[in-house]
Amino acid sequence: MDIITARGLTKDFNHTRAVDNIDFDIKKGECFGFLGPNGAGKTTVMRMLYCVVVPTSGTIKVFGLDIEDNPSIIKSRIGVMPQDDNLDIELSALKNLIVYARYFEIPYRTSRKTAYNLLEYVGLTEKADENIKNLSGGMQRALLLARSLINSPEILILDEPTTGLDPHSRHNVWNKLKDLKEKNTTLILTTHYMEEAERLCDRVAIMDRGRIITIDSPKNLMETHGGNLEYVYLKLTGKRLKGKENGENNLS
Amino acid sequence: MEKTICLKRAFRVWQRHLTVYTKLYKTSIALNFVEPALYLIAFGIGLGAFIKDINGVPYIKFIAPGIIASSSMFAATYECTYGTYVRMTFQKTFDAILATPININDLIAGELIWAATKSMFYGTIIIVAISAFRLVDSPFVIAIIPILFLSGLVFAEISMVCTAVVPGIDSFNYFYTLFMTPMFLFSGIFFPLDVLPPAVAKIAFFTPLYHLTLICRSLVWGSAGGIAGSIAWLVVVILIIAPLAFILMRKRIIK
Ligand SMILES: Nc1ncnc2c1ncn2[C@@H]1O[C@H](COP(=O)(O)OP(=O)(O)OP(=O)(O)O)[C@@H](O)[C@H]1O
Ligand SMILES: [Mg+2]
């Protein structure tokens, strides 16, 4: 069953076309990855999915609902871990989660309990009362992950969840995401780490300059093109660059 | 895109701001208190030593109600200029909030209601302070408090319009130098408008601060007469500017 369908999705910012007429479907319970070089339009796609960026044209249905008509309902069932940290820096780790829970109309008692559980889940129990300013970058990412789970989302959107993490923390996050997948949470993520995509994603969309070059499982892609996913990625996105006047071919 | 405002969701934004504020209030409350105290001392006592009275009222007593008005006004404008701007850009608080069931209109409404609340709160502190200095004649002064919420909305909306269009945080200097400071100086807080050239007095007559000062003065001195028109004008301004604040701010935030 498709939990998300996008058709003819296009987004223009002033004069840049960030997303250029793309179609994709995401199935319930799968882990779907968006890959692509900087500026490919991954974040823009994510932000359209959670209704913060309005498409210039095209349609997106989430849970069968049109995002234009039902943003609140859709957002109440989605969790978002953004690319940029946007925690409340004045508040403690715990308070961050509790304040966030209020946006979802989660009662205080429930949210307090959930918040403690989530802090434990991401290994931040000791930091519960610590100010955000005193958390390391990796800890802040972990807290963002915890925050995105506060409403037990059916779809979890993760924009570069492991960027800036040390190898241990990265493996930790991977394990969490596998956990969530077992529980039938639909995961949508972007990453620049091909190993991450290979390990986690059932299917990936490789994007470049606002377009989707291909959508397939990492396994199929590797079989078709030979080599590992990184090789496939460089080959596919490099090919497009080659045709351009100032293009540089990343394949070496 | 939802066109309506959900007050319950706006209240969640309000609550967030309150939570953050109660963590920081110790520093900011003292600061907001110092400035009006300085005005009272400098103008009321300092200048007041030379100006015996205005229309038979001792000078410090003449300006005290105006300090309620200006203090609450600046509380609202600071909140919806610098405060809102920082949350919108540097801290990315709006991004965080908009990823939840809160929609853009709820968020803007929450910002405005919070600023109005703060405006009411800071005005109330001045009321308490000038009461302690025996500059208040009448228990009617209590009636100012809910009116401060209305005027707070007016100033919040005006500031929000500015925040929606400024290219950067430094541009607020223009707003304060060219708009807020003249309004502060020429709205009848420090001297009656009738000494101004008629053209200037006419402009001043339309400013919300002039009417708020009038309301504060009447109620502090114990005469409620003549304030109905001023309250009505505040409501009219709220209704006129609200659509502008919402439309421009939506345009700014939702790309
Ligand atoms: N708010 C915005 N205003 C103007 N242009 C924007 C805005 N957001 C994104 N863009 C542009 O849209 C294009 C796609 O950006 P996007 O952030 O979606 O890329 P990305 O694939 O997430 O890149 P990265 O891997 O660096 O995060 C870029 O050219 C970017 O400059
Ligand atoms: Mg991105």
Task: Indicate how many domains the architecture of chain B comprises.
Answer: 1
The mean pLDDT of chain A is: 93
Bound molecules: adenosine-5'-triphosphate, magnesium ion
Q: What is the mean predicted local confidence, pLDDT of chain B?
A: 93
Distance between the termini of chain A: 41 Å
Structure in words:
The complex is a heterodimer of chains A (252) and B (255). Chain A is globular. The model of chain A is unreliable at 240-252 (pLDDT under 50). Chain A has 252 residues and is α/β, with parallel strands linked by helices. The N and C termini of chain A lie far apart (41 Å). Chain A contains nine helices and ten strands. Chain A is 38% helix and 25% strand. In chain A, helix 3 packs across helix 4 (108-121) and helix 8 (218-225) crosses helix 9. Chain A has two domains: 2-77 and 155-251, Rossmann fold, CATH 3.40.50; 86-152, no CATH class. Chain B is an all-alpha fold and 255 residues long. Chain B has one domain (7-253). Helices cover 75% and strands 2% of the residues of chain B. Chain B has helices spanning 7-46, 59-88, 93-98, 104-132, 144-165, 172-185, 198-206, 208-221, 228-253, and strands at 53-54, 57-58. In chain B, strand 1 and strand 2 form a beta hairpin. The radius of gyration of chain B is 19 Å and the shape is globular. The A-B interface holds A 13, 50-54, 68, 71-73, 75-76, 78, 80, 82, 84-91, 95, 99-100, 102-105, 151 and B 1-2, 6, 8-9, 12, 15-16, 19-20, 23-24, 91-93, 95-103, 254-255. The complex binds adenosine-5'-triphosphate and magnesium ion. Residues 13, 16, 18, 36, 38-44, 83 of chain A line the site of adenosine-5'-triphosphate (ATP).
